[in-house]
Amino acid sequence: MSSNTFGRYLRLTTFGESHGPAVGAVLDGLPPRLNLDLTGVQRELDRRRPGASSVASARREPDRVQVLSGLFDGQTTGAPLCLVIASEDARPADYEPLRELLRPGHADATYHQKYGIRDWRGGGRASGRETAARVAAGAVARQLLAPLGVRVVGQVIELAGVVADPDPDVAPESPVRCGDPEAAARMEAAIEQARAEGDSVGGVVQVIASGVPAGWGDPVFGKLDALLAGALMSIGAVKGVEVGDGFALARMMGSEANDALVPGGFATNRAGGVLGGISTGQDLVLRCAVKPTPSIRKTQTTVDTSGQPATISAQGRHDPCIAPRLVPVAEAMTCLVLADAWLAQRALVG
Amino acid sequence: MSSNTFGRYLRLTTFGESHGPAVGAVLDGLPPRLNLDLTGVQRELDRRRPGASSVASARREPDRVQVLSGLFDGQTTGAPLCLVIASEDARPADYEPLRELLRPGHADATYHQKYGIRDWRGGGRASGRETAARVAAGAVARQLLAPLGVRVVGQVIELAGVVADPDPDVAPESPVRCGDPEAAARMEAAIEQARAEGDSVGGVVQVIASGVPAGWGDPVFGKLDALLAGALMSIGAVKGVEVGDGFALARMMGSEANDALVPGGFATNRAGGVLGGISTGQDLVLRCAVKPTPSIRKTQTTVDTSGQPATISAQGRHDPCIAPRLVPVAEAMTCLVLADAWLAQRALVG
Amino acid sequence: MSSNTFGRYLRLTTFGESHGPAVGAVLDGLPPRLNLDLTGVQRELDRRRPGASSVASARREPDRVQVLSGLFDGQTTGAPLCLVIASEDARPADYEPLRELLRPGHADATYHQKYGIRDWRGGGRASGRETAARVAAGAVARQLLAPLGVRVVGQVIELAGVVADPDPDVAPESPVRCGDPEAAARMEAAIEQARAEGDSVGGVVQVIASGVPAGWGDPVFGKLDALLAGALMSIGAVKGVEVGDGFALARMMGSEANDALVPGGFATNRAGGVLGGISTGQDLVLRCAVKPTPSIRKTQTTVDTSGQPATISAQGRHDPCIAPRLVPVAEAMTCLVLADAWLAQRALVG
Amino acid sequence: MSSNTFGRYLRLTTFGESHGPAVGAVLDGLPPRLNLDLTGVQRELDRRRPGASSVASARREPDRVQVLSGLFDGQTTGAPLCLVIASEDARPADYEPLRELLRPGHADATYHQKYGIRDWRGGGRASGRETAARVAAGAVARQLLAPLGVRVVGQVIELAGVVADPDPDVAPESPVRCGDPEAAARMEAAIEQARAEGDSVGGVVQVIASGVPAGWGDPVFGKLDALLAGALMSIGAVKGVEVGDGFALARMMGSEANDALVPGGFATNRAGGVLGGISTGQDLVLRCAVKPTPSIRKTQTTVDTSGQPATISAQGRHDPCIAPRLVPVAEAMTCLVLADAWLAQRALVG
Lengths: 350, 350, 350, 350
Prior knowledge:
- 4 copies of one chain form a homotetramer.
- Chain A has a single domain, classed as Chorismate synthase AroC (Chorismate synthase, AroC fold, 4-Layer Sandwich).
- Chain A has helices at residues 38-48, 108-115, 131-145, 181-196, 224-233, 254-257, 323-349; strands at 5-6, 11-16, 22-28, 65-69, 71-72, 75-76, 81-86, 151-159, 162-163, 203-210, 238-243, 261-262, 265-266, 274-275, 278-279, 284-290, 300-303, 309-312.
- Helices cover 26% and strands 22% of the residues of chain A.
- The first copy, chain A, has a 5-stranded antiparallel β-sheet with strand order 1-2-3-7-4, covered by helices on one side.
- In chain A, β12 and β13 form a beta hairpin.
- Chains A and B meet through β1, α2, α5, β11 and α6 of A and β1, α2, α5, β11 and α6 of B.
């Protein structure tokens, strides 16, 4: 219903615009007596924030999380947890020249058409800054999942055509969030080249959730992979989502695509840890396609708000590739879906 | 919340098992005074039903739709519309040999783990038969959209590795639901070969919605493409979803990926008709990866319900490729999401 | 969202019109492996159905419940349970004279204004017949609650001004559903007198839920009493709802109204078993005001659908007092709310 | 689902504890381009805040509303509006003596049982301070309704047994929020006497919504009066809700209770402006029973958190009667339900 609310049992409502006073998250349905580690929440925000690495935007936001409600003596109380992240380096004036211009690849035109009003200061609600609230809430969901043995690790597995072959379970430390050092180096080079050309590049982010017990997720419309696909596709730049072997499965024979059952589990995991929308107990494997950053320095053809032809060249502080910063966001969405599925299963079978 | 309910403003609840007495749909939130054409609903069911073509399963279900509520003098009344499709060719006894066997690639193992009880008669709730209810409801949604000029056409664009290049706007008449006759012939041959080998094949289904006005869809979690991705991924055999150029966008430069704005619209449509989660007014372009039918005659390794090794060879009536029959299902889900988005936009701006 | 769907964790969707082919209920979120006693469901329907007693309408409906889905070997499977009750004694022609007349006290005028179309056959969706679906679903919820020790008993405690003082925990067998035999006799007489005069009377129905553990219900908008009040007020003829001492509390001093805490519980139960929206472990005490049946034989002033003055005299088969038949409906809604609260608490704390 | 979220189309999520840093509201689904008058929002908060009159608590909160998101150039944008009200006069230390005591009539015992943790600083989430967020959001809903001609006016019509007969349409200025000056004076005296005795009193609040067009509200579970009853019963101290003549209708004959239809409307309004859950176009008439403030200076019997007998005497800053301060809260909830119903009707019929 609410497009700014996510989840069924664990429900996240977010608010805030790119250059408004703050973005924030209200997380409801949290079990009580969770010892919330705010340092852990901050760590996830630090992974997402701009200016965190040489390959990201130069906007300098400390992105400090502040708790407005729901915590007492360090524990959740069952009341909604409100987390707020104030904007400190907002520079709406930077966007003044773009006031009348609709940026290609952005939501400027569609917001204008939908609402008849548009907060032109850096994209307003459509800005990637909105994802800070998701990351903060996802970090809380991660802390719900950790004691159950569930671990969610994402990384960039492809960027600007450079395909990596990383250890899927190791959270990468590299600026491009890729655990294959050789590929990571080439990815960084590709980003720098795109920056030099005033252009941008895309990539593929993979998220693996290990330790998910069999039996999470629901049939028909509430399939675990359907919820995850919707969750990942709701991240700004994502244009495709795969589960397990994904599109490659469409090219296999059934005898090849089926994962044989063996005592205690499965021989393979082409299905990506989900059958009939319910977790199998194997690793959940997700991938999403991330389009290149639409804001580029190269001159592009566009129109202004009155429909007249114009050209545009982005001068702001933009990432030449958003994929690395999308890693913690995709992880956060995965954590939120999984924590929700856990509560759903508790409601169903106790 | 309910995993058997879909939608926000136009809400579909489905029920029914593969070999139970009926499957059905309750559609709520329908605007009143729609002249419902039941022949049109039946036509969509006929496109989906088994036994409809030489390449599909031999189960013979007439799939006649019956209206239990919500219609008066041929018009919707604002009350929930209940459509029921009785099962006539259910043969639960066919599944007796599989009572203790968990079929690879099916939801048998996961339902067993989740619920501790499993309706083993042909997959129960996890059966593809559940989609008949979606198709019936989607046909109603299609009739809501038609007067607005919205048209939803799907087809198979790839099958068993055969890539087609069809006219995207023409609903294909071929048994494989592919509008490129030369490719369609090769696809049929591939299906027959798989059948002969006791194996199965997968494919890619594309759905294009034309005539969607700019401004449908919502920001953040309610993005039009997020809802569509979740909707399509909720169809049994779907393992991947793309919007517009999808995964190919991850390999482009920003200057190539952005659709330039021109007076009156856009120069290209790489984004697939959606920016920031809101429709642009261009064609909505969706694709989904369909895995091969898991039930195959070839002997497979599996376990029984007590975890002991076993082998299995499907003897039932199964499609060697589910992709053609998935076309009306994918269209139905698209129609449901779009009709819902239309009502959402009416609520928001009148 | 859906006005025909009720509940959060245990979700009931109902459909059907008074003189359509059937009314039905889809109940989703049911825990698996409940041995469903269909005889118990039928027994509740029998308590509600017309023609069951000398004081009720003469419409003769057997109201046989039929299961379309969600049951396997007598157990719930986790799939949605669809219960259908076919209409056998529908006589839409009886309503032909009322086609153009708007009945006072009924929803005729408001449906006409809201939808621009109205199923005039006996009230259509606004008919009390809709409550058969609630009763069937409530009987299932009751079976979820029974093993937890929760028992829900309703009765008429006031009718036509006759105030009863019944044992609150004993389900009354009398036709007027009142456990105080002396008052029940006077109530029956009052109903017969109203019938003789071509008029109707109202009453007050009380529902007591015993055995509800402390801790069910949620703060703020999800208060247990708020959900119960909404649930009871959603029953057609109900115009007021009280919890515990209700309106009488507004006339007490705080020192009198507060229930003192004593070791192991409370000294009194003026609050009606709920504090801050959460159950106290005491009996939940609810009362609802039931207006007189609006359809009466006495001539009334009204207008026709074109707004012209007219008179009306109901000739159909109507109860002169709906309160006794409302008892199982109020119990059903209470059971649905409580079962939902139980699942909610399981989601929250396991 | 979320117990801290209210509404279907216009959705309010609230957060915050009595003595935490702030309470707040996130309002989603707001139509864009509403010129929001923040002065009007503040005015409603001023009506609710403690310390506003001689008959209310001495806690001195300026209750200044701050906008964190959703507003641009003074207009709503379609993005969620986040309103925050910081706590300035929080004195958690005042509650230190009550740390181990469970206050009669409060939610202390039930929160303790439900969550196993309790924010004892003034009731935490269960405090009446939570209603500040409702009032702020309701003031926004009121501004949506005003251009449609809808006006919502509440007042105290009974207090400590003093029954008033005020002009229902005039918002009262008196400290007790009662528009009948003679009765208001006696109510004030009753409150002062209760304060002197260390006790408290209750009352009845009436809310009338005029200008509501016919056709708002939905059938079955989404009846306008069902939503309103749930909304009002969700306010802390409310223990009963009536619509129209409410419980008095249970004592009338049908011929007396029915509102005759006359050309252009109805002869009377016993139904309180709603039939079959849908507005009739007449005044919506609601009343709620407000229990006496549970915190009183008089010594009461209770137990401590370990279940041992104890006595308690409230020393904090408490209203001897909460009914006057409840008026703006009841109005706010009514405005929220009505604005939601308006959007629902737009979704349904455009």
